[in-house]
Design goal:
Distance between the termini: 38 Å
Strand content: under 5%
Shape: globular
Radius of gyration: 18 Å
Number of strands: 0
Helix content: over 70%
Oligomer: single chain
Low-confidence stretches: 95-102
Order of helices and strands: HHHHHHHH
Length: 208
């Protein structure tokens, strides 16, 4: 059992910490208010745990919906491109200052950041694919040998939640660590533009 949990944790952490749209925005939130950054990380992590649970309950049904599979990445792409545009055109003002200084795509309040974490994770095709892969690799074998299906799924959801908190949290911490370097409006604007380009690259790779 321990070896299965460790394998789950490694798989989930690898999926959570690799670069992607969720982590790019976590880095940007990390440069802002600490409470909002934490709420963003929490929202993205809870959303991913719910995705894992949903894939465990209805993964086969979702795979049989070709229209949903065809349009979901496009909706995500449009949202990410809008976020990239907002970031690229955001002023280089200090995001820890007034809320009006933040780009519209980055809510500075805890509630808005939490909801954005949920939204961008739920629209992230990578999250759904990683969750489905994990269900096949870990939940199904455990359900066949050691645990009930619901028990194995609950275990994987819990491990995925903790791994996502750690993985996305690392990117938010990196954003916070960059705060001292981002001490001029020009540098903050350059960071926004660089993150916008990374988001666009994520969209291109997602649709390729």
């Amino acid at each position: 059992m321990l070896s299965s949990v460790l394998a789950m944790a490694g798989f989930a952490l690898a999926g959570a910490i690799t670069p992607g749209p969720v982590n790019v925005l976590a880095l940007r939130h990390g440069h802002g208010r600490a409470v909002a950054a934490f709420c963003y990380v929490l929202g993205a992590s809870i959303s991913y745990a719910l995705i894992v649970w949903l894939m465990g309950q209805s993964g086969q049904w979702l795979l049989k919906q070709p229209e949903l599979l065809r349009w979901a990445p496009r909706v995500c792409a449009l949202y990410l491109l809008w976020l990239a545009w907002q970031l690229a055109n955001a002023p280089g003002t200090d995001s820890r200052g007034t809320r009006e200084s933040d780009p519209a795509s980055l809510p500075s309040g805890p509630g808005g950041a939490f909801l954005q974490g949920i939204a961008i994770q739920s629209l992230n095709p990578k999250a759904w694919l990683v969750a489905l892969s994990g269900i096949g690799m870990f939940v199904a074998p455990l359900a066949a040998q050691q645990l009930s299906l619901s028990g194995a799924l609950l275990l994987f959801c819990t491990v995925s939640l903790l791994a996502c908190l750690a993985g996305v949290g690392c990117w938010a911490a990196l954003g916070h660590a960059l705060t001292r370097w981002l001490n001029t409006p020009l540098r903050r604007q350059r960071l926004n533009q660089a993150l916008a380009m990374v988001l666009v690259a994520s969209v291109v790779s997602m649709l390729a």
